[in-house]
Amino acid sequence: MTMEYSHLTSEHKDVLREIGNIGAGNAATSMSALINRKIEMEVPTVNIVAFDEVMELVGGPETPVTAILITIKGDVSGKVFFILPIEEAEEIACRITGNTEFRLSNDDSVETMAISALQEVGNILTGSYISALSDFTNLAMQPSIPYLSSDMAGAVLTAGLIDLSRYSDYAIIIETTINDQSKTSGIHGHFLFLPDPESFPKIFTALGMEHNE
Amino acid sequence: MSNLQDVVKVGIADLNFVKAPNIIRTSGLGSCVGVVVYDLARKTAGLAHIMLPDSKQAKQAHLNKYKYADTAIDIMIERLSKNGARRNALQAKMAGGAEMFQFTSASDIMRIGPRNIEAVRSHLQKHRIPLIAEDVGGCSGRTIEFNPASGALRIRTVNKGETTI
User: Fold this and answer.
1) pLDDT tens digits, residue range B123-156?
2) Are the CB atoms for A42 and A178 separated by under 8 Å?
3) Is A163 an 8 Å CB contact of chain B?
4) How far is CA B117 from CA A73, B52, B98, in A?
């Protein structure tokens, strides 16, 4: 029982946008506490996109990014990505660990300490994203441990599309960008939430909406 | 580099064809496998960006045949043969099939890279197409570019530089 993407009405999109709002809003608050800066959130977008366009959301398939991936199981299943440019992920890791030499792109000197710090950041951010959704919808959502990878956007994002690709060539993506306020060096993170196809009817029903199959 | 050289781009779960002097490219291969089938003397090649190993596992009403190792390779061979390549001169190269995240729990997305590699290998074997070279596995994303004039497959990574096979 999966939903045909063409059946997504503007009301459905509004609901999904609200989900992005609530999730990322909560995550932005956590991020702000973590790095002690004010974090702003942009208005979420809900898009039905072909797989190639997924990569375009974060700058194209070859753009180097740091991605933290969490898979969700429970009433609602799917994937949540938190994506940052690699330099910004390094900046966060440096800020938290106090090690200014840390580089993610240099895998000869893998800094396990900084990597686990980043994983923990991912855990806190995506955890607060997911728990806000779970509270809002009253649906159970259990997050996995965070997985971290720094590489080409196309290569890392595909991992979130494999399950989906058995059913479809399109993904419904709820995207929210969070930024810190400093103009010079800043944090520009993308949350990408990709619910599994069978989760959409559950989300809509939980929020009191009909969905017509 | 000649200005007359075009780069044919292949998206994810997509395939396309090229003739010299043009070259063909696909970007950001992770667990996906890029497989090139070519006739070197005729300077013609096809490139598929394969996402999943087996079309029989599809749960899709309208099957995208470019997405799966078995169906994509069949299509490439058929169209290359129709467009001047000689069936018995076809050769292949492949790259990709990495594991981008070290998943610990058992799941389908885990090990999809190795399964894609295996599916491409066995399907090429079924068609008796020799696999000349490969750069597969590991945990790095790859962008690949094939030149049908030379038969060279150039592989670019973020962390491990560039190689040609």
Assistant:
1) 999 999 999 999 999 989 999 999 999 999 999 9
2) yes
3) yes
4) 28, 10, 9
Residue of A nearest to B60 (CA): A167
- B139/chain A closest Cα distance in angstroms: 9
**B32 is an active site residue:** yes
B155 three-state secondary structure: strand
The C-alpha atoms of residue A42 and residue A44 are separated, in whole angstroms, by 6
**Cα Rg of chain A, angstroms:** 17
- ipTM of the complex model: 0.86
B3 touches chain A (CB under 8 A): no
Q: Are A211 and A201 in contact (CB under 8 A)?
A: yes
Q: What is the pTM of this model?
A: 0.87
CA distances from A29 to A22, A83, A176, A178 (A): 11, 17, 14, 10
**Beta strands per DSSP E along B40-130:** 44-50, 91-96
Transcribe A114-158 into DSSP letters: HHHHHHHHHHHHHHHHHHHHHHHHT--EEE---EEEEEEHHHHHH
**Which residues on chain A are in Cβ contact (under 8 Å) with B14?**
52
Instruction: Indicate the pLDDT class of residue B104, thresholds 50, 70 and 90.
Output: low
Distance CA B14, CA B165 (A): 22
A167-184 pLDDT per residue, tens: 888 888 888 888 876 655
Q: Is the Cβ pair B12, A152 closer than 8 Å? A: no
- Residue B145 carries which side chain, given as an amino acid letter? E
CA distance A5 to B92: 37
Q: Does A166 touch chain B (CB under 8 A)?
A: yes
d(CA A150, CA B73) in angstroms, rounded, equals: 31
Name the residue among A51, A156, A161 with its Cβ closest to that of B141: A156
